[in-house]
Amino acid sequence: MRVVITLEDGAFPHVHVTDGLAERTYDTTVDVLIDLLSDAEATSAHPWVTSPLLPPQTVFWAQQGDTDCLVLDLPAGPQPWVLPDGQASVTAYVIPLPRLLFLFLRRKQRVIQKAIAVVNTPDPLSSDTPLFAYPLSNVYANTTLCWTMPDRPYPVSELLPLAHAFFATPNNWDLSQARNASGLDYRALGAALADRDTFPAEWLVPLHRTWADWITQFVPQAEPVADAPTD
């Protein structure tokens, strides 16, 4: 595209635009011309950065080079709970879980870290929203998951189904102690939850971390609230 601006004494600036096939000419004021040039300079210096098409329930996305981080906000609701009883038998229930934040950190689309935390409120996230420990097993104290998955690229369209696959993966006794305040052993906890419609809020254990604390654990320079005012 070619733009020619002609300035003459006693006349409005004249603009001629052509892309080699079509052309347009018009007169404008000096003030409008200055605004247009300023906008063009700002756009060139700060181009738009776009995300891929993100899955439903995505509340956070960040990228640095070939690494990106994506957080899903999963509403409270029923999920499977499976505990192996032996080589050929399992105990399986459908149990209620609280609202969960499920984080995936990828490099070249391969998942290099995954984490999970509980939000004990229906309100939108804010920088000071307190988080709670995932109340079941297979999650470390720092909220990362003890969960092995096939080492392959996972496009963002697969991340929501992948999160749900975690709940369907058989549990074990590892990391099940002190993850909740029910006072029940792990097998009894599953049975007790199977008779409930919602996860008891009083059984949740605080992480003593906020959303801002948690997300900057994985994305050190993250803006905890995307629409925070800027100058």
3D structure, described in words:
There is one protein chain. With 231 residues, the chain is of the alpha+beta class. 19% of the residues lie in helices and 31% in strands. The protein contains 4 helices and 11 strands, in the order βββαβββββββααβα. The protein has helices at 30-45, 159-168, 186-194, 211-218; strands at residues 2-6, 14-18, 23-27, 58-64, 67-74, 77-84, 90-97, 100-107, 110-119, 130-132, 206-210. Strands 4-5-8-9-10-11 form a 6-stranded antiparallel beta sheet, sandwiched between helices. Strands 1-2-3 form a 3-stranded antiparallel beta sheet, with no helix packed on it. Strands 6-7 form a two-stranded antiparallel ribbon. Strand 4 and strand 5 form a beta hairpin. The radius of gyration is 26 Å and the shape is elongated. The mean pLDDT is 86.
What order do the helices and strands come in, and which of them pair?
Elements: E1 2-6, E2 14-18, E3 23-27, H1 30-45, E4 58-64, E5 67-74, E6 77-84, E7 90-97, E8 100-107, E9 110-119, E10 130-132, H2 159-168, H3 186-194, E11 206-210, H4 211-218
Antiparallel strand pairs: 1-2, 2-3, 4-5, 5-8, 6-7, 8-9, 9-10, 10-11
